[in-house]
Each structure stands twice: as C-alpha cells, then as structure tokens.
Amino acid sequence: MASVMSDSAIDAALAELPDWHRSDNAIARVVESATFPEAVALLQDVAAAAEAADHHPDMDVRWRKVTYTLSTHSAGGITELDVKFARRIDALVADSAKN
C-alpha cells in the first residue's frame, strides 16, 4: 500500500504542479474547456487513464469546468500515486489543448 506523503513532500510536489492545490487530504485542479463537449471528452480521457492506472479521481462536472480531486483513500491521504496521476491529468489537458 502507498504511504501518505509528509506535508513538506506534498508542498514540494505542488510546487511542480502549479495548476493543483491542496484541498484537505487531497489535491485538486479545475480545468475549464472551451465547450461542454470538450470538457466531457477530456473527462472521458481522464477516466480511461484512471481505469488503466487503477487510480480513480473524484470528478465534478459543472458545465465547461471539471474539478479533478485526487486522494488515495486506502492510505487515508495524499500519496505519490496521486502526484503521479496529477501529472498524467496535466499531460491529457495539454494534449486536449493541442486538438
């Protein structure tokens, strides 16, 4: 099982993930797409990546904005798995912006 990261390790990781912030025992990012269908398409890409990684974020859709929240529930907080998947989401966001 993954271990919960220390506060200083989380702060260091978030320094490298400027679009993410800490939200209690999780990290979160809001992504705003140009249209609702683009927001849903990105959400589907993230869902496919999450299924492949067996690490599933909470996803909240509000029209063109989707909030992605990551926490390793089995560990009780933020782990390296969350940081790694945040980077994966960032890559998917960057890829969707190119299309």
TrEMBL record:
Whether Metal-binding counts among this entry's keywords is no
| Catalytic activity entry | (4aS,6R)-4a-hydroxy-L-erythro-5,6,7,8-tetrahydrobiopterin = (6R)-L-erythro-6,7-dihydrobiopterin + H2O
Which of UniProt's keywords are assigned here? Lyase
For this protein, the Enzyme Commission number is 4.2.1.96
Q: Which SUPFAM superfamilies match?
A: PCD-like (SSF55248)
Q: Name one Pfam family in it.
A: Pterin_4a
User: Which CDD domains did the record assign?
Assistant: PCD_DCoH
In alphabetical order, the GO MF annotations are: 4-alpha-hydroxytetrahydrobiopterin dehydratase activity
Family in the record:
Belongs to the pterin-4-alpha-carbinolamine dehydratase family.
Recorded protein name is: Putative pterin-4-alpha-carbinolamine dehydratase
Originating species:
Rhodococcus globerulus
